[in-house]
Amino acid sequence: MFRSRVELPAFQGSRNCPVAASAILSGRLFQKQARDRNQNCGERDRRMRVGELITTPAAGLRREEYLWDRLALKDSFDGMHYAASLGYSKPDQNFYRAVEAAVHRGTAAWLLPPTGGIYLSSNTVVFNSAALKSRLGAVTRKATCKAMRDIIRLFDLDTSDPELMRAQFRSFQGHIPLLYGILVCNTVAITVTSFNAALLVKTLFAPIAISAIAITRAIWWLRQGHAQNLNDTQISKHLKRTCLLAVMMTLTFNAWVIWVYQDAGAYARSNLTFFLALSQVSTVFCLMTLRAAAMLVAAVSTISFALYFSWVEGGQLLPQSLVLCCVCIGMAVVTHSFNRSFSEVVQSRRTLHTRQLETEKLSEENRRIAFSDPLSGLPNRRELLARLDRLEQQEGLLKNSLAIVFIDLDGFKLVNDEHGHHAGDELIRTVCQRLREQCPDNAILARVGGDEFAVLLESAGIAENAHASALTLALRLLEQMALPVLVDRHVLQISGSIGIASNTDAGVNPRELLRRADLAMYHAKTGGKGQVAIYSDELDKGRLRRIEIEGQIGTGLGSGEFDLVYQPIIDAASGAIVAVEALLRWPRRAQGALSPDEFISVAEMTGQIHPLGLYVLERACREIQPISGLGLSVNVSPAQFRHPGFERQVLDIVKQTGFPPECLQLEMTESYLLTNPRMAIKAMNTLKAAGISLALDDFGTGFTSIHYLKSYGFTHIKIDKSLLKGLEPGSKATMLVAGAVTLAMALDMNVIAEGVEHETQASILRDLGCHEMQGYLFGKPVPLAELKGILDRAGEKQRQKQRLHMVP
User: Fold this and answer.
1) How many other C-beta atoms can be found within 10 angstroms of the C-beta atom of residue 573?
2) Is pLDDT above 90 for 51?
3) Cβ of 371: how many Cβ atoms within 10 Å?
4) How far is CA 710 from each of CA 660, 666, 744, rounded to the nearest angstrom?
5) 5 phi and psi, to 5 degrees?
6) How confident is the model over 631-655, as pLDDT tens digits?
7) 576/568 Cα distance (integer angstroms)
């Protein structure tokens, strides 16, 4: 009896439960003896011992042998349970596979023991291999069949890859004509060396026919042109026909050579074998890109050559036949390797082309993202500038052939603040759609900012006037932007400010046009919004003037060029000076004094009004603080109110200067209050809580309603001097002022009238109940020193009056 012996690790089990079992090799049934021997062992002890034995590798045991042992033990002890725990679905199949792997790798041997079973002990396993032999025989048959299929597949034309077929077709367009050329040359050489006038059919007509067919096929391949003109079905058809013709031409050529060989002399026979072998090798190498054709040609030519020349002339050419067979095998190997490399190259090119397309697509997507606005889908500022640069590179731009319409949405920020950015986005999309519908085909609409757009107009010909077209378009766009927009059941109303610039100057470049249109738009916006402005040189002069003043304001603050003057405010009943208004002047400017109307507007546009306003407040509080009981009124710009730290800075100045907050009054216009009511109310409540009075300046010139007056909690209103024009007894101006005074009194506000220049105006204002007055009638704005003199004289007069009243 021959046995395969595999040592297992020593097992320390229970003293009363020896580990022994036997199982039928099929893996489906366990012999009853195995269960009888182990029935006294508890389930817990048995699984513990088996688990220990299975999971403990044997010292020095190879992996395949240990796998074999583990599977055998698994089949012996409750195989299905431990198969599942070890990841096997069927113990019998996995057992067979493991044993087969061990036998094939030489790590275990199998022979037939006569007993027909598996014997297990704690240290040794003995296998019955009868079933294994049958199983391995089946495996061997399967492997043989697979090898045969692989060999047959070498001669099969693979048409599953259209790209590979096209590459093979393109390769054949150069190789097949060369192949037929070699074949014709060999045919001619054989004809010359073997020509026999008595055998014209064999030595002349047959080679002519072969050469004619070869030349015809070569011409056909040369005339095919590009493979792109053919579909996949046509290419597959041509390749299949090429394989068939290659075999037929090979058989025809070999048969002709053998036919000629029979009647040729010794010298001609040596040439025939040489040219036949040469034709075979050259044909195979010319067909290497098409594996099926090359393999078929190699097999057919080699078999025909070997079958004939191995027995002809008494077997004298048998060595040559054997050598040619070896050459054929080598060519087959080379052909297979080359064809595989060729396929890999085609696959690499396809992968590279796919990646290139993906890269181009990604590049195009990146370009689209970089040069378009994601919200509206319009070209962005970068795309517009690129287009302007391309226009600048063009030579011979005609005069008045370009125009730019620059658009800014009025009130867009308010929509964002009150309704949220979602509403703002929807508003932008709707406006973009409306603008796009109005723009002509030769126009480029771009979104160049959050609420800014630009339209580039290019005239189509000499007769077209770009400036006139831009003006017509601007008016249409202005109407469209004024239409209401419905967003989330809210009706939003905005307008637009538009600036226009065209190349009416021959030397202006396209980018300069964009700047000019922007400047014109800014002029339209500052001039009242909702209108169109056309660029002119005067706008540039004003811009340069503002830039100059902007730089000088910063210098003037640092060098002490600014000064304050004070205008008295009197009590209407007593005529005494109860307060003064601080006004800013720029007397020591290096370029000459500048009026407040000119530099205040520049400071508000540039944001410099905030440091200027703090300078005025701090200096006025410091200068007026020593004058006991005198009130101080200071103007506050809307730009100052927008500053997030304005209230804190005002309170810090009051604290640092020691100025009584109850004597301080801040004057503000209604423009900021109407655009930012929530922030304004919060700031005003903070200032009022500190004891500071608030006055609404220029009352009567704006749109402030009674509701706003009540909401903001003003303590004073200042009637604008424009309402005092024509103020006479019984006049309409008197009635208007009387209404304003009555309204203020109803709201518990004091009334201050500014711009009083005549005694008649003062008398009427007293009669109407005005509380305080201010104007040239009572005093012009004067420096601090003169103000102190005026106050001293007024105090002296007041004391004299008091003494006169005291005399009995």
Assistant:
1) 11
2) no
3) 17
4) 26, 17, 10
5) -110, 125
6) 999 998 877 877 888 889 999 999 9
7) 9
Integer Cα distance of 756 and 778 in angstroms: 8
pLDDT band at 235 (very low <50, low <70, confident <90, very high): confident
Question: In the 3-class helix/strand/coil scheme, how is 30-74 assigned residue by residue?
Answer: ECHHHHHHHCCCCHHHHHHHHHHHHHCCCCCCCHHHHHHHHHHHH
SS3 string of 319-385? HHHHHHHHHHHHHHHHHHHHHHHHHHHHHHHHHHHHHHHHHHHHHHHHHHHHCECCCCCCEEHHHHH
Query: Quick check: 272 and 260 in contact, CB under 8 A?
Result: yes
Helix axis angle, 537-559 to 609-624, nearest 10°: 40
CA distances from 571 to 402, 474, 623, 756, 757 (A): 63, 54, 22, 13, 15
Q: At how many degrees (to 10) do helices 318-370 and 162-194 cross? A: 150
Q: Check if the beta carbon of residue 519 is closer than 8 Å to that of residue 409.
A: no
228 CB neighbour count, 10 Å cutoff: 8
The residue type at 772: E
What is d(CA 483, CA 435) in angstroms, rounded to the nearest whole number? Answer: 12
Q: Which residues contact 157 (CB under 8 A, 6 or more apart)?
A: 239, 240, 243, 290, 292, 293
Distance CA 217, CA 223 (A): 10
Three-state DSSP class for residue 295 = helix
Structure-token pair, residue 362: 């990604």
Residues in CB range of 491: below 8 A, 6 or more apart: 484, 485
Tell me the H-state helices in 747-783.
759-768
Q: What is the pLDDT of residue 657?
A: 92
β-strands 664-668, 631-635: how paired?
parallel
The residue type of 544 is L
pTM over 0.70: no
Can you count the helices (H) and strands (E) in the chain? 29, 19
787 Rama sector, left if φ>0, alpha if ψ -120 to 50, beta otherwise: alpha
**pLDDT tens digits, one per residue of 503-537:** 887 678 899 999 999 999 988 988 778 899 999 88
The tally of CA atoms less than 13 A away on the side-chain side of residue 80 is: 3
User: Which residue stretches of 119-205 are H helix?
Assistant: 130-154, 162-194, 200
Q: Tokens 């040369």 sit at which residue?
A: 222
